[in-house]
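User: Could you go from structure to sequence for me? I need the amino acid at each position, not a summary. Structure tokens:
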């Protein structure tokens, strides 16, 4: 029995590596988990409240979503194509009685309209392609958090990741979907009688 267990443990790493290679040829996106040492910095810059809805597109094992749960956001949603990582996330959520929800679905077909924060840790080409979808579907005021890569020709804020006081490659880029006129709160018009500013009228002599 112990010999079988040792063989299984020996074969597990190469089997997982083979799975990741197969996954890459299927999705054309390499699987790279968000480094755990980056999670603290990400949480500091996400400004999560109890009303926040967070979407992680390409959620992997759900590390970012589980880290964000400590702030008790309204929803934690992940989209991931890898069956193994989806099952792992769901099992972990069940074990922890977590509110994290993950769907095995291509995030390019996901409905992202309710998200307040959208997190991306993807290769540059996919980030750029995803940005086209975000521009069309994300709600005004939504925050887009991108680790390591950037969204070209877009204004945002950059937060370098430091090690011993020195900036390391990558960093956190944060963008905001602009508010539209229709998304701004309505202000009732002020009648002339209620205004302290005199109103001038032009009249035509009769």
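Assistant: Here is the amino acid at each position, in order:
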């Amino acid at each position: 029995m112990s010999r079988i267990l040792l063989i299984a443990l020996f074969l597990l790493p190469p089997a997982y590596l083979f799975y990741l290679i197969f996954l890459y040829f299927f999705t054309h996106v390499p699987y790279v988990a968000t480094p755990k040492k980056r999670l603290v910095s990400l949480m500091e810059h996400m400004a999560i409240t109890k009303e926040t809805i967070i979407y992680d597109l390409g959620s992997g094992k759900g590390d970012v979503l589980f880290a964000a749960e400590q702030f008790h956001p309204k929803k934690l949603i992940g989209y991931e194509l890898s069956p193994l990582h989806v099952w792992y996330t769901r099992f972990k959520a069940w074990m922890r009685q977590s509110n994290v929800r993950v769907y095995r679905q291509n995030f390019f077909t996901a409905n992202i309209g309710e998200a307040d924060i959208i997190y991306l840790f993807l290769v540059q080409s996919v980030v750029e392609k995803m940005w086209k979808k975000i521009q069309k579907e994300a709600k005004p005021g939504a925050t887009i958090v991108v680790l390591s890569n950037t969204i070209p020709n877009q204004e945002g804020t950059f937060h370098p990741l430091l090690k011993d006081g020195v900036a390391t490659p990558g960093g956190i880029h944060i963008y905001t979907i602009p508010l539209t006129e229709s998304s701004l709160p309505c202000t009732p018009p002020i009648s002339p009688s209620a205004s302290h500013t005199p109103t001038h009228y032009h009249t035509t002599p009769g």
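One structural detail worth keeping in mind: Confidence is low (pLDDT under 50) at residues 191-206.
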